[in-house]
Amino acid sequence: MIKYKIDILAELKEKGYSTYKMRQNRIFGEATIQKFRAKEHFNFDNLNTLCRLLNCQPGDIIEYIPDSTQDK
User: Fold this and answer.
1) Which one of 2, 19, 53, 56 has the fewest beta carbons within 10 angstroms of its own beta carbon?
2) pLDDT, tens digit, for every residue of 5-63?
3) Burial classification of residue 13, based on how many CB atoms lie within 10 Å of its CB (0-12 exposed, 13-18 middle, 19 or more buried)
């Protein structure tokens, strides 16, 4: 399972990117912003943009947690 390590929207806001600004500047669309709110999965293009805006690595944003119910 992939899990968010940070509150993406809070981190973006701290860097000066409000949801209004992201929509107006077409950085992220409303559907993607809603995915961030709901902590749903998003695509690699969005992960790339997040890393650029937050000046971080993917591992700073998400982490993999093994599912204990799956066979190894």
Assistant:
1) 2
2) 999 999 999 999 999 999 999 999 999 999 999 999 999 999 999 999 999 999 999 99
3) middle
| DSSP-derived secondary structure for 3-47 | EESS-HHHHHHHTT--HHHHHHTTSS-HHHHHHHHHT----HHHH
Residue type for position 36: F
Residue tagged 């107006």 (tokens): 24
| DSSP 8-state code for residue 2 | E
